[in-house]
Amino acid sequence: MNERMKACVPYVMKRLGLGLLIGGAVACANMAGPNGGPYDEKPPRFVSSTPLPQQTNYKGRRVEIVFDELIQVDKPSQNVVIAPPQKELPSIQIVGRKIRVELKDTLKPNTTYTIDFGHAISDNNEKNPIGHFSFAFSTGNVIDSLEVGGVLLNAENLEPMTDVVVGLHANPSDTAFTRLPFDRTSKTDDRGRFTIRNIATGTYRLYALADANRDYRFDQPGEAIAFLDSTVTPTFRFATRQDTTWKDSVTVDTIRTVHYTHFLPDDVTLRLFKEVTQRQYMLRPGRDRADLFTLHFNAPLDSLPTVSLLDGARRNAPWFLTQPMAGRTAVRYWITDSAVWARDTVHLRVDYLKSDSTNTLRPQTDTLHLVWRKPRARRKSKDSENKPERRPLVFQSNASGMVEVTDTVSFLFEEPMTDLRREDFRLEQQVDTVWTPVEFALEQDSMDLLKYNLRHAWAYGANYRIAVDSARLRSIYGHTNDAYESAFSIRKREDYGHLYINIDGIDTTAFVELLNTSDEPLRRVRVKDGGVLFANLQPATYYARLTVDTNANDRWDTGDYATHRQPEMVYYSPKEYVIRANWEIEETWAPRALPLDRQKPIAITKNKPKDETPKKRNYKDEGRSGDRNRSGGFPF
Question: Where is the composition biased (Basic and acidic residues) (predicted)?
């Protein structure tokens, strides 16, 4: 001991006795907590279990697994998968170094049971996970040991689908998926990968199911599913691999050959989709204005409702204009007859298609009574009492600022227009310093009766202005516009880049979407003569997605299990396309060259794998929080 410690010992013995000599000596020496040392980066190790791993003829329903350190299980009810599936949820308890699983269902005879923990088990301190830990035993004489593996992707955008049940049916009937629980199951990890373990010899049908009610059957409308067209027959082969031991990050220590059992198939790709099974019915209607009401529906309409007045005089006369909204889940009705919109209550008969209990569309008739309560008028000042109130026509336009050479200038009105003509607008281009009238076309938008598109072949780098004289435009309700004028410019030719992609190996109807860095489509071009051209692109980074448009309807279509129709195929280009100003790029893309799970660039993948790398130890700050008394010993 040094002199300071010798002086401190009698004091410690006097106050606390000899039993605390070591503690007093440490305190008087002002020793801080341990700093540095090896960091525990090893996951817990299996020590023992009841029953033994791979034990046969086990009749109990309790499984206990012991590890070499304190452990935890992340969300056991969600992450621990037991096969065959259990009707009643098992009890999973963590007690120190032990996991205790109580199976509530009666065990089936001659069956291999698997408790698959995935990555859920980790040590209690550093959270080092045990990867792909599973435990198996059998109630019969044999342990089934075959495996099937693969990946589950979103059929529409190739996102890896996590935490989704994947299962096997030995029953080859199509109805097994809808009426019976799976024979063997697993769940996908954060990379969308799955491994179904302890499978018996045989031939199986393979499915994925986003199981809403945990009954391991496809029996709920809206559950996302995937199915394989062909059957799978699990098998194996003996194989070898090279395992490398490293002395450090750059120096190899040893390379040894390891013999292992390679289970097949291990590369199955399933594509998850939702069927179009929404039940069709009307939601609460609304009378938005005296002259406007809206019918809302829970699902897109294939055909528009038939609307008629219940009272006699105008039952058959045209008294409204119909405006289907985007997505066709709502329809606006603009009342054109002043005698109708003047009523406090409009009584209607609506005939439309509604889903019955079997999800079949049947004719339905509803009676509606739409009430409009006029807002209380604001008090007018004395100066304005004798002035007639004028409400100008309201509209919006994108004809301002910088307009892309590929854009269409549009006008969106607040209410339907009457007799809108091209002559009502004046479009001029600046030539030198002179504004010169130019020709253009004006047409009503096919999807929105309130929108009108002005089309002209814009010149690169040109300046334009558009004007409308006062009271030139009139709505069906007599509202007219104020004078309007707006100027805009078109980008120069050298501000744009161009991309041409040769499509290799796709000889059917298909289209390519150009995507931004958020995986959102910006443009869509059909494949023609073996390629697609995206001209006049702003400098940026783009990505590409191809859809095999089987029915040529210009959109991606989902699948249908009852008719064995798979969703339309989607491919992602693994490249990013960096477009620079005044550049022309030509690329070649073979959509089928890579497996689907290796196509989508990680930069636009939303379901990125979790980082399983343990955090490195902070040697500098470690131990400071526990060093409670830096200036001296414990306060007696």
Answer: 608-630
